[in-house]
Amino acid sequence: MIPCIAMSIFSEVPQAPPVAVFKLTADFREDSHPQKVNLGVGAYRTDDSQPWVLPVVKKVERLIVEDSSLNHEYLPILGLPEFRSAASKVALGEDSAAIKDNRVGGVQALGGTGALRIGAEFLRRWYNGVNNTATPVYVSAPTWENHNAVFADAGFKDIRPYHYWDAAKRGLDLSGFLDDLEKAPEHSIFVLHACAHNPTGTDPSQDEWKKIAEIMKRRNLFVFFDSAYQGFASGSLEKDAWAIRFFVSEGFELLVAQSFSKNFGLYNERVGNLTVVARDNENLTRILSQMEKIVRTTWSNPPSQGARIVGKTLNCPELFAEWKDNVKTMADRVLLMRDQLKAKLQALGTPGTWDHITQQIGMFSFTGLNPKQVEFMIKEKHVYLMASGRINMCGLTTKNIDYVAQSIHEAVTKVQ
Amino acid sequence: MCRIWFRMSQPSDSTGAKGGEQSAEGGSHVSVFLNTHTAALNPETKLFSAFTADTHTSKVYLAGRECLNEEGQTFVLPLVGKLKKQISADPTLCPEYPSSLGLAEFTKRATEFALGKNSLALMENRVFGIQTIGCTGAVRLGAELLKHWYNTRAAWCGPVYLSSPCDDSLASIFEAAGIQDIHYYFYWDAKQRDVCVEKLLADLEQAPEQSVVVLSASAHCPTGADLSEQHWALIIQLMMRRRLFPFILLPVQGLCCGDLQRDAWPVQHCASQGMELLCAQSFSHCFGLYGDGVGNLLCVLKQSSLLSAVQSQADRLVRALWARPSVGGARVVATVLSNPAYLTKWQEEVKHIVERCMLIRERLRERLRLLGSPGCWDHLIKQRGLYCCTGLNGQQVEFLSKRRHVYLLPNGCLNVSAINSSNLDYIAESIHLALTSAL
């Protein structure tokens, strides 16, 4: 054997920082405290703290496994056609004029992340010039921490925050947001959360969205929606897609990265769709041809299982109704926990106002706890939440809510 | 190069873009994507469209990527079908987010599968595997890892050497990862209808130090012509001397020769020589899991002290690509690889495919001999795996599709499994005509 003594080509590689939310879950797992609560990671849990397979999903999975007529080939590069069209329809609405005009297309992707990445790669290559890596990309402050990485890895060099969360008033910093829109260079890309903003749970109202849209149209800013919680936020698909549909009706060309991980509970099937709303069919065709090229060099052919489940469900009226019901079940449980948490904090006389807990929407809530208080919660009370004060409402159950409320009360009163 | 193509302020221009409709609320009249070029149709899509539009009753498509059975359907392994049903009925499996690195049991088994359980590199903890979306995902992740982290001090960005010919998407995957400097090394000799290792070595000799060389462990796509152990010994010697980095493709372990060890031998050999390497594995073909995209990126390092850092960086890259892989297919593979009874059953089923492909090759060669086709057709049976490079030239390939409705890849390669007893005679006749007609 010839000894190979040359240096490793990877000898200078530094350790990447751990992802905060995964580290939190890892710490939680190692904790043996009997009353520990995990309010970190973003997945739905039942009142028994278990993951939930939606009944409609179980039903459809069985149908699929029994279906001997299904072919076992590679899916087309752009994905399962019936899934793509149904997914775009669920975002834009049954009566979407844009769909009727044949200027809407979908690209099946690996979850919401995959959809964002394909969209980002496309924009870097073909938006605002050719291969213009200098186009500014704006993400909310704060935002889901992966937004930055996706656009940076897609080649964008200039990723900036836009004002969003006002910590003092625990709500939307609308004037800061609008100001950033006015000052952004023309053609900048803005990543907007369609609903249930992650991590703050704070969404603009309809009037506020109108103001945002007005400036974006006037200043030729590009709209890229991240829609990971449609249906999950309010329990209504239409309500949760209002912003997207409004922008489309205002004539914007835009991208929507959709995830079906949470509203279908299909976390491990990686089901996503990038909806493209173009000016007309001719543009759409050219755009999709480039999307196909990008997909071909990323994963080539997407996995079929999740798309089959979602496609079948969305395209069958009975199954669709059943799914909406299942989604409402999840949304209602979250709303109940919000109500109860606020009520308990008020009953305990915890200092401060707690209205934001019921005003915020979706899986997450920005409690307003500061880092010291968060540390207290984790170390002393074994209640795990993000350093930002973000909690996952799904981690609350009727069994642990008293303990959590009590813990928050102690954190706020004992730790400054 | 950042010209601003798009000028917004022409409110009176309602005809703007090609066929553009007037905006609903007086906003832009010109699409922001006006200047998006129509992508050239990828050659496979073009070919398949032509085939689909062809109305001839005897038409045959021999350019597909899936492994087909005797009836022309995608091959479904009975064991895989059974396991899928079992897994879907398992109440203990929950719909959680998988790790970004993939299913741990899968990556462990897949990595062992390629390197062999007794690999020194494994025992010294210098190896990691990351579940990817198929072989493409593995190559893309590997390319991103190299682009970001290959010799950080030197800001490496190529060159990458690919075989001539190779899978037509390989170059674009590296380009998508930001590596534009792509070269090709001599591989398939059309005259000899075989690999020409002398010319291959001569090309690699010219490659700058620190080049990445993509090599196929077995079942070379698209020629089916593989390197022998002696060839590998020479190539590895050269690569170590010239500090070239191997990125090995292992697309169909088990499906090439029917021997798991033999199909993966080059990977095992490189590792045993102390080389660092990347290996892109796919389980789509050998498990019939095309709809599941099951791949693995295997990385062998020189020192175990580097493992954590390099894996963490690969993990970071995954999280911005697809975040986490889908688990269905990986579960099936992990179940088979970790259960000796299933493994034996699976090997039997795979052997059946291998034998069928070998038989088709022999029968095709025999038919051509009986028809009196000119030339030597031994290369048909020398080659292994799903693909076969016939040696037909462009004109002959076009004759086949246009006049005989038999569709091969433009480079004369074809998917052997698409040939069966119903179409063998017609195909052989067609090839014979292509060779003997005045073109």
TrEMBL record, chain A:
<dbReference type="InterPro" id="IPR004839">
    <property type="entry name" value="Aminotransferase_I/II_large"/>
</dbReference>
<dbReference type="GO" id="GO:0030170">
    <property type="term" value="F:pyridoxal phosphate binding"/>
</dbReference>
<keyword id="KW-0808">Transferase</keyword>
<keyword id="KW-0032">Aminotransferase</keyword>
<protein>
    <recommendedName>
        <fullName>Aspartate aminotransferase</fullName>
        <ecNumber>2.6.1.1</ecNumber>
    </recommendedName>
</protein>
<dbReference type="GO" id="GO:0006532">
    <property type="term" value="P:aspartate biosynthetic process"/>
</dbReference>
<comment type="subunit">
    <text>Homodimer.</text>
</comment>
<dbReference type="GO" id="GO:0047801">
    <property type="term" value="F:L-cysteine transaminase activity"/>
</dbReference>
<keyword id="KW-0963">Cytoplasm</keyword>
<dbReference type="GO" id="GO:0004069">
    <property type="term" value="F:L-aspartate:2-oxoglutarate aminotransferase activity"/>
</dbReference>
<keyword id="KW-0028">Amino-acid biosynthesis</keyword>
<dbReference type="InterPro" id="IPR015422">
    <property type="entry name" value="PyrdxlP-dep_Trfase_small"/>
</dbReference>
<feature type="domain" description="Aminotransferase class I/classII large">
    <location>
        <begin position="35"/>
        <end position="408"/>
    </location>
</feature>
<dbReference type="Pfam" id="PF00155">
    <property type="entry name" value="Aminotran_1_2"/>
</dbReference>
<dbReference type="InterPro" id="IPR004838">
    <property type="entry name" value="NHTrfase_class1_PyrdxlP-BS"/>
</dbReference>
<comment type="similarity">
    <text>Belongs to the class-I pyridoxal-phosphate-dependent aminotransferase family.</text>
</comment>
<keyword id="KW-0663">Pyridoxal phosphate</keyword>
<dbReference type="InterPro" id="IPR000796">
    <property type="entry name" value="Asp_trans"/>
</dbReference>
<dbReference type="InterPro" id="IPR015421">
    <property type="entry name" value="PyrdxlP-dep_Trfase_major"/>
</dbReference>
<dbReference type="InterPro" id="IPR015424">
    <property type="entry name" value="PyrdxlP-dep_Trfase"/>
</dbReference>
<dbReference type="GO" id="GO:0005829">
    <property type="term" value="C:cytosol"/>
</dbReference>
